[in-house]
Automatic annotation (TrEMBL), chain A:
CDD domains: PheRS_alpha_core
SUPFAM superfamilies: Class II aaRS and biotin synthetases
One example GO MF annotation: metal ion binding
All copies of domain Aminoacyl-transfer RNA synthetases class-II family profile, residue ranges: 228-431
Protein name per the record: phenylalanine--tRNA ligase
Subcellular compartments: Cytoplasm
PANTHER family per UniProt: PHENYLALANINE--TRNA LIGASE ALPHA SUBUNIT (PTHR11538:SF40), PHENYLALANYL-TRNA SYNTHETASE (PTHR11538)
Species in which this protein is naturally found: Drosophila simulans (Fruit fly)
Lineage: Eukaryota, Metazoa, Ecdysozoa, Arthropoda, Hexapoda
PROSITE patterns noted in UniProt: AA_TRNA_LIGASE_II
Annotated gene: Dsim\GD16126
InterPro entries, sorted: aa-tRNA-synth_II, aa-tRNA-synth_II/BPL/LPL, Phe-tRNA-synth_IIc_asu, Phenylalanyl-tRNA_Synthase, PheRS_DBD1, PheRS_DBD2, PheRS_DBD3
Swiss-Prot/TrEMBL cofactor(s): Mg(2+)
From TrEMBL, chain B:
Protein name stated in the entry: Phenylalanine--tRNA ligase beta subunit
UniProt-listed Enzyme Commission number(s): 6.1.1.20
Record has Transmembrane helix as a keyword: no
GO-annotated cellular components: phenylalanine-tRNA ligase complex
Single GO MF descriptor: ATP binding
Classification of source organism: Eukaryota, Metazoa, Ecdysozoa, Arthropoda, Hexapoda
Example GO BP: phenylalanyl-tRNA aminoacylation
Subunit relationships: Tetramer of two alpha and two beta subunits.
Keyword GTP-binding recorded: no
Location relative to the cell: Cytoplasm
EC top class, as a word: ligase
Substrates-to-products reaction catalysed: tRNA(Phe) + L-phenylalanine + ATP = L-phenylalanyl-tRNA(Phe) + AMP + diphosphate + H(+)
């Protein structure tokens, strides 16, 4: 920034002990702001100069004040407008213009004019023959820079009349600093390959870092926070030896979503206000027939040790398509496959994390579609202790070890439970998993 | 999850012990209930009606609001809850319900006309009952709770309770034309016909919801006594004549229904829970219900079923190792009286436990009595090498890479409006193989998306204020109708973003050169969603797998976007 100017200032200071920037501005015929700017540049390079802040108060003319200097004070002008024979007051006012009123009252108080009320209309006459326009001459002094010679009373008065204004100017008094030099050395910003190569880094001066500023954010992509959780849970399941189920089918039949899971056909959850029913395509038609017959039987009259629900099971209900309300529908399909695969049933562990749909009105804590985490273990001789143990390990991998299991009711799992875990961050118990898949193997397969 | 409100002090009095809120919470927890809220009637009224003035006269007594599992009808009132808890704590033996035969049974005859509207009916009598204000309120509340739950808002079963001493049997259950029925409904002063009743109650806050159950029927159900006094017009309202008061001593209970099984469960529940107020506790007087075909069935059934379970299996199922006597004791505490018989247990399932329909229900109760948190944690013994679902594995890998390339992942709704995939993309909704929802609650959920584009465009609009460029991606499923599948639709995993070449590189799919046969390439095409001349099909192995291009300004306008937008969407399923 204005290298010439900075150098000139420095050179000036070499021979002068103290210099006020205002004086420098006059000396170099430059705008004071430029001088200040150069000063800042110098200061950025180190302690070459010292700068002491100084405030100057100066008097200056306002526009009105300038007009007075040029044309004369308002009262003098009014005086001049009064002819020897006098003039009607109204006419005087009109002739005097905007400042006539002020001028008139001042002229009256100075005793330059009088109002003759002996005639009608009253006339304004000169009282004295000549006047001296003191105001004008005093303001002229200010214009010449001799404002400080005016008595304070006059100054206050002129300020009140808005003829004068006081301006404050801040300037700096400069002197040589500890690192004084007559030239500015350029500060380097970064180390370069060349500097390393030729060893010049040792001799060069480097600009100071501003450690209070944040770094520039790098361009980056982002993974969705919910999906990051999904990835983590998926990882945990895989670590625990669970295989992933194919859940890429949002549209499901009521048969797999409800009937195969022993949700009776009149159950409230099958109501239109909890489930999204699909009207195109409206119905499924392919079911494993003998399995369907078994399901029908257990619903209506019982079987496999169950009393059943005691109602007429309808195929049309089971055919209705919907958007799955839980991924348990997929689990049911998997278990069916597992039981009927070639080579017979083999123990297995499955999991899935995928979208499910509920026909709810949206609010701060409810969505119509959300992710469900599901785990299934199928084997002979599994115990409730195994289920609780597995859940405990799952949560342990999330860093949660304080768990309490509470009995609960769920139409298609028996026993069922809810898990409450202690969240160390929130310092309270929160209800976690709602439903646990358990015990289906015995009945359906 | 039904919730009941019980006055805390009455509850503790009946339980014979005072608890702190936390202690009671723990007891509920162990039993399978949840203490949802500690409040007062005043607070509840203020919450419900928002009117402090109305609640000003209400009680300041503490009320416990307790969550009851949906299948435990026997816990839906203070009486049932107390009995359940006392039995659970071993302080009370499970009550045995007994019939007391009267000199002459009450008879309820079902007329064939009822088959048109509400075919089934059951009845019972509770003798020498003493009501207090508290037990009277509890009686009414229980009926209300049952109506809301198992009775499915009175559509399946409707309950009517009457002062037997004001009536004369035999009773007759008929279905008549609305104008043939005339009586004074409960708490009214005027007599009304069936049709007048419909009009009268059409503005009643509670009852108007039940009117549609029978309103359009040519005949309405009605129960008369021998003097043609109307007991009730189910499921709407009882008659004023037979209303129950604090002075009532003998109660006649009738349930009419469209589901016979549920009617039986409801009747059993009411008599079991309230027979503790009879002079002879836990006794019920049976009634004869004459069926349309002339056969007579005695109600209530109060069936005590016996199930035999193996001690070994019960222990193995849960993962504990308790001797038979201990298991029997635990079951008895769960209201399922059990006796040891060799290596089995003979379990009596009382009429209050209609929720027990399989051996595993019994095992669950053993586990609850043992305490879920007391069961030793174990892990399944078998070893399995886990497999990832290949499509998901590919998705996870791609997600990582696309994010590293500087794109931000979005997760958008699967459901959207018809316009979102149709008009706004300059496409005709009827020509698309979309899955339509039959009962959407809002416009936003009319169809299942066939493309990921609208979701991402809406995300862009919501983030207009963010600095450009905005680079979004999503790898997720769309659904297309497909008759060849079992359900008529299938999911397709798609990727949308702006980085075709890099993804193809990751998938190791070479750019198809003029001479080669394998690989991907672009083929210029016109598509109404894209700017003319700026759209191409993404081809792989000669098949169209997606589209790439600059979106058409009208599409941008439809989604209220003001900056140009380019996108590529294609399916990754061929690459799994």
């Amino acid at each position: 920034m204005h290298p010439d100017l900075t150098e000139r200032i420095l050179q000036h200071l070499e021979t002068t002990d103290k210099a006020d920037t205002l004086d420098l501005a006059a000396l170099f015929a430059e705008d004071h702001q430029k001088i200040v700017g150069s000063l800042k540049s110098i200061q950025a390079h180190g302690e070459l100069v010292t700068a002491e802040t100084v405030t100057h108060k100066s008097l200056g003319l306002t526009d009105e004040g300038r007009s007075v200097v040029e044309h004369g004070s308002h009262e003098a002008l009014v005086y001049d407008l009064v002819p020897p024979e006098g003039i009607a007051q109204a006419a005087l006012m009109t002739a005097g213009g905007a400042n006539a009123k002020v001028g008139f009252s001042k002229a009256m108080s100075h005793g330059w004019i009088l109002v003759d009320k002996s005639v009608t209309p009253p006339l304004v006459r000169r009282k004295v023959d000549t006047i001296t326009d003191v105001v004008r001459s005093q303001l002229q002094q200010v214009a010449l820079g001799k404002g400080d010679q005016l008595p304070a009373k006059e100054v206050a008065d002129f300020k009140k009349r808005k003829l004068l204004q006081e301006t404050t100017t801040k300037s700096f008094v400069l002197a040589r600093g500890p690192e004084f030099a007559t030239t500015l050395t350029k500060l380097e910003t970064d180390l370069t390959v060349e500097m390393l190569a030729n060893g010049l880094w040792d001799q060069l001066k480097f600009k100071a870092y501003n450690f209070d500023a944040l770094g520039a954010p790098p361009t980056r992509g982002h993974l969705h926070p919910l999906l990051k959780v999904r990835t983590e849970f998926r990882q945990i399941f895989l670590e625990m030896g669970f295989s992933e189920m194919p859940t890429n089918n949002y549209v499901e039949s009521s048969f797999w979503n409800f009937d195969a899971l022993y949700q009776p056909q009149q159950h409230p959850a099958r109501d239109a206000h909890d489930t999204f029913f699909v009207n195109h395509p409206a119905k499924s038609h392919k079911f494993p027939q003998d399995y369907l017959e078994r399901v029908k039987k257990v619903h209506s009259v019982g079987g496999y040790g169950s009393k059943g629900y005691g109602y007429d099971w309808k195929l049309e209900e089971a055919q209705k398509n919907l958007l799955r309300t839980h991924t348990t529908a997929v689990s049911a399909r998997m278990l069916y496959k597992l039981a009927n695969q070639e080579g017979g049933f083999k123990a297995a562990k499955y999991f899935s994390i995928d979208k499910v749909f509920r026909n709810e009105t949206l609010d701060a804590t409810h969505l119509a579609e959300f992710h469900q985490v599901e785990g299934v273990i199928a084997d002979v001789g599994l115990t409730l202790g195994d289920l609780i143990g597995t859940l405990y390990e799952f949560f342990r991998k999330l860093g949660i070890t304080q768990l309490e299991f509470k009995p609960a009711y769920n139409p298609y799992t028996e026993p069922s439970m809810e898990i409450f875990c202690y969240h160390p961050g929130l310092a309270k118990w929160i209800e976690d998993l709602h439903l646990i898949e358990y015990g289906i193997i015995d009945i359906s397969v | 999850m039904p919730t009941i409100g019980v006055k805390r002090d009455l509850l503790f009095e009946a339980l014979g012990k005072t608890y702190t809120d936390d202690e009671f919470q723990d007891l509920c927890f162990a039993f399978g209930l949840e203490l949802d809220e500690v409040t007062t009637e005043k607070q509840m009224l203020t919450k419900e009606q928002g009117d402090v003035a109305v609640a000003a006269n209400a009680c300041e007594e503490i009320i416990y609001r307790i969550d009851i599992p949906a299948n435990r009808y026997d816990l839906l009132c203070l009486e049932g809850l107390v009995t359940g808890l006392l039995v659970f704590q071993g302080k009370l033996k499970p009550p045995k319900f007994q019939f007391v035969e009267p000199a002459k049974r009450q008879v309820l005859k079902i007329d064939p006309s009822t088959a048109q509207i509400r075919p089934y009916a059951v009845a019972a009598v509770l003798r020498n009952v003493t009501f207090t204000q508290a037990s009277y309120n509890s009686f009414i509340d229980l009926q209300d709770k049952l109506h809301q739950n198992i009775c499915r808002k009175r559509t399946l079963v409707a309950i009517g309770t009457h002062d037997l001493d004001t009536l004369q049997g035999p009773f007759s259950y008929e279905a008549l034309a609305p104008n043939q029925i005339k009586f004074k409904p409960l708490n009214q002063t005027k007599e009304m016909t069936g049709s007048e009743l419909m009009d009268f109650y059409s503005t009643h806050a509670q009852l108007k919801q039940y009117l549609p159950i029978i309103r359009e029927s040519p005949v309405y159900p009605v129960i008369y006594d021998a003097n043609r006094v109307v007991l009730s017009l189910p499921p709407i309202i009882n008659g004023d004549h037979s209303k129950i008061s604090l002075k009532t001593k003998n109660v006649f209970i009738e349930c009419t229904a469209t589901d016979r099984t549920k009617a039986k469960v409801v009747l059993d529940t009411i008599v079991c829970l309230f027979s503790e107020h009879c002079a002879q506790k836990f006794t019920v007087e049976p009634c004869d219900v004459v069926q349309p075909d002339g056969s007579v069935i005695s109600y209530p059934e109060l069936e005590v079923r016996e199930e035999r379970i193996s001690v070994k299996r019960a222990n193995a199922y849960i993962g504990i190792d308790e001797p038979a006597e201990k298991l029997a004791d635990m079951l008895t505490r769960m209201y399922l009286e059990a006796k040891v018989d060799g290596d089995s247990l003979v379990v009596k399932i009382p009429p209050t436990r209609h929720d027990v329909i399989h051996a595993c229900d019994i095992y669950e109760d053993v586990a609850i009595a043992y305490g879920y948190n007391n069961i030793k944690k174990s892990l399944p013994a078998f070893m399995q090498i886990a497999k990832q679902f290949p499509l998901n594995k590919l998705t996870e890998q791609l997600r990582e890479q696309v994010a590293q390339a500087g794109f931000t992942e979005a997760l958008t709704f699967t459901l959207c409006s018809r316009d979102d995939i149709g008009r706004k993309l300059n496409k005709n909704i009827d020509a698309l193989p979309a899955v339509h929802i039959g009962n959407p609650k809002t416009l936003e959920f009319q169809v299942v998306r066939t493309t990921l584009l609208p979701g991402l465009l809406k995300t862009l609009v919501a983030n207009r204020k963010m600095p450009l460029p905005l680079k979004l991606f999503e790898i997720s499923d769309v659904v297309v109708a497909d008759e060849s599948t079992e359900v008529g639709a299938r999911n397709e995993r798609r990727v949308v973003h702006g980085l075709l070449d890099r993804v193809m590189q990751l998938l190791s799919v070479p750019w198809k050169s003029a001479s080669g046969t394998k690989g991907y390439y672009l083929q210029a095409t016109e598509d109404p969603s894209y700017f003319p001349g700026r759209c191409a099909n993404v081809m792989y192995d000669g098949v169209v797998i997606g589209k790439i291009g600059v979106l058409h300004p009208t599409v941008l306008q439809a989604f209220e976007l003001t900056t140009p937008c380019s996108a590529v969407e294609f399916t990754i399923e061929p690459f799994v």
